[in-house]
């Protein structure tokens, strides 16, 4: 396969008849990368907001079944939502239970209706006669006055409910910025400054949202508290590793045990404790273990009226990808949905795994497995997941199972030093390409990394594909990989390489469960150890 790919690239670049000749071989040439793209599409398809919502809500007459519980619909339904994917969730919810819906308000990103319309995603838009009001805001993913207005409308709706009412809360990534309700006397500007400084200093989403929860009327369970005594059912599309309910969109329906020392420790870590506005000191000193920051301590049972259900996650996307891999004749192995850490280390991991899978001798050297295991903590992958993966790779080598499809997900990080255009998926693909290219024995592996939202950093690509021919291909086209990497310019690199054919460009997908990685590993060509 590697030879066919190499030949086709040669034809594509050098031969005067390159277009027609290349297209003659394109079917076999692209077999692995076509399958990698199909596996990625299946991952994204499996977590489309309307699909996950449909999967999680069951309607039998006036009964609504969700998360193993049953609720009676008696024209008592209200709906609120906030996040990048809630428009599609709301559209499907209205199709399913709209006849009982009294009123809804959702807070969604600025311009999203137009963008979804332009991408032909009409199924994610509300009907003209919808009972749900769509409010756009949070330009550039920052809480703004528009989002604050939406949050106020959502708070008003929730606060007016009675014990007969059922409130559906739709939550997805980006929800924190779309539901700003600064605890008085803090202003939106002051809260925005603190979160912006934290983010710029490199705070993790866990740290950021721990602080956000402490400063908000609605986060950290505040929304659920407002809706009391109504029954609350929150349907959550997770964009955080491990699906922690209290952190996704800062957990507006999840009771948070606020620990002031935890918040101060985070502010200290990023050297912000001494430059805080006085209003923030006031909010933090008043706060107690509670729902939101302004409410007095509540007993545990107040949470009884809330059901939180994760309806979509990276794990689900990987399971869908795995099923697609089987359909395509590949042997799937799911490594982990929690890959994080610097892209350098993550690329190294994939390089080592490919070397291990395709090692051309009967026994793989134990040092290789040891090096893989050592990397685990740096890239967020548990030892047992690595051991399980290594064992499966060993079995596949012994039994000659054909092409393996190694799947993983998560959200690695890039330390931005240059001024180029790129994203963590494209930079990871580029670094994995270097790893695969540097192998003496070419594994023939193809690697794909893509953001499930369809957008990788500030670029129009979701990610990129790569393989062991990357270095040769780049050199033959006069592209200096190191230069592009130093300048964090992976998008420009992949746009210039072979006319952009290695870019992954599904367009905006309307969902977001972080990133998906797929590495297709053909059996070693020198396999004579049977
Ligand atoms: N030139 C670049 N090269 C590599 N990575 C970049 C570059 N510019 C931005 N990034 C990375 O892209 C990420 C931001 O992009 P994006 O908006 O896709 O983030 P996200 O975390 O997927 O957002 P969300 O979860 O809200 O969808 C950051 O991790 C940032 O480090
Ligand atoms: O909105 C947020 O807080 C992030 O997207 C994590 O869920």
Automatic annotation (TrEMBL):
UniProt similarity note: Belongs to the glycerate kinase type-2 family.
InterPro entries per the UniProt record, alphabetical: GK-like_C_sf, GK_N_sf, MOFRL, MOFRL_assoc_dom, MOFRL_protein
Protein origin, superkingdom: Eukaryota
Pfam family, one: DUF4147
Domain MOFRL-associated: 36-284
Enzyme Commission no: 2.7.1.31
UniProt catalytic activity: (R)-glycerate + ATP = (2R)-3-phosphoglycerate + ADP + H(+)
MOFRL domain: residues covered: 405-515
One GO cellular component term: cytoplasm
UniProt name for this protein: Glycerate kinase
SUPFAM superfamilies: GckA/TtuD-like (SSF82544)
Alphabetical keyword list: ATP-binding, Kinase, Nucleotide-binding, Transferase
Keyword Kinase applies: yes
Recorded GO MF terms: ATP binding; glycerate kinase activity
């Amino acid at each position: 396969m590697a030879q066919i790919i190499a030949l086709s690239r040669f034809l594509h670049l050098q031969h005067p008849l390159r277009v027609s000749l290349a297209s003659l071989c394109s079917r076999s040439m692209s077999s692995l990368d076509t399958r990698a793209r199909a596996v990625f599409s299946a991952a994204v398809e499996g977590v489309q907001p309307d699909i996950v919502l449909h999967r999680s809500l069951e309607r039998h007459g006036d009964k609504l079944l969700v998360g193993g519980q049953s609720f009676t619909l008696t024209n008592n339904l209200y709906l609120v939502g906030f996040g990048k994917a809630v428009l599609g969730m709301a559209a499907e919810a209205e199709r399913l239970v709209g006849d009982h819906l009294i009123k809804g308000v959702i807070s969604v990103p600025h311009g999203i209706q137009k963008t979804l319309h332009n991408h032909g995603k009409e199924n994610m838009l509300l009907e003209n006669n919808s009972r749900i009001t769509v409010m756009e805001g949070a330009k550039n993913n920052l809480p703004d006055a528009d989002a604050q207005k939406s949050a106020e409308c959502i708070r008003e709706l929730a606060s007016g409910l009675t014990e007969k009412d059922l409130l559906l809360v739709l939550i997805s990534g980006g929800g924190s910025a779309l539901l700003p309700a600064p605890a008085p006397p803090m202003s939106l500007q002051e809260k925005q400054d603190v979160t912006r400084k934290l983010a710029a200093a490199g705070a993790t989403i866990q740290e950021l949202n721990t602080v956000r929860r402490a400063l908000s009327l609605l986060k950290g369970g505040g929304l659920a508290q407002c809706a009391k005594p109504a029954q609350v059912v929150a349907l959550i599309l997770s964009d955080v590793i491990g699906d922690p309910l209290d952190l996704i969109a800062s957990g507006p329906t999840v009771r948070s045990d606020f620990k002031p020392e935890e918040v101060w420790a985070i502010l200290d870590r990023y050297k912000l404790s001494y430059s805080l506005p006085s209003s923030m000191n006031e909010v933090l000193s008043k706060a107690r273990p509670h729902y939101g920051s302004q409410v007095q301590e509540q007993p545990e049972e107040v949470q009884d009226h809330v059901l939180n259900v994760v309806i979509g996650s990276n794990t689900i996307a990987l399971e869908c990808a795995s099923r697609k891999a089987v359909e395509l004749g590949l042997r799937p192995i799911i490594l982990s949905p929690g890959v994080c850490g610097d892209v350098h280390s993550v690329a190294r991991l994939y390089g080592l795994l490919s070397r291990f899978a395709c090692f051309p001798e009967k026994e793989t050297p134990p040092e290789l497995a040891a090096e893989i295991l050592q990397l685990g903590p740096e890239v967020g992958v548990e030892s047992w997941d690595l051991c399980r993966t290594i064992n499966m790779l060993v079995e596949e080598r012994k039994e000659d199972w054909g092409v393996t499809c190694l799947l993983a997900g998560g959200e690695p990080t890039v330390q931005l030093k240059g001024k180029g255009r790129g994203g963590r998926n494209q930079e990871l693909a580029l670094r994995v390409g270097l790893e695969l290219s540097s192998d003496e024995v070419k594994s023939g592996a193809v690697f794909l990394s893509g953001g499930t939202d369809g957008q990788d950093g500030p670029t129009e690509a979701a990610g990129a594909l790569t393989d062991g021919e990357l270095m040769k291909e780049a050199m033959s086209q006069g592209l200096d990989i190191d230069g592009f990497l130093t300048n964090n310019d992976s998008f420009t690199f992949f746009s210039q390489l072979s006319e952009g054919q290695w870019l992954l460009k599904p367009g905006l997908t309307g969902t977001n469960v972080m990133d998906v990685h797929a590495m297709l590993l053909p059996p070693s060509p020198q396999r004579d150890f049977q």
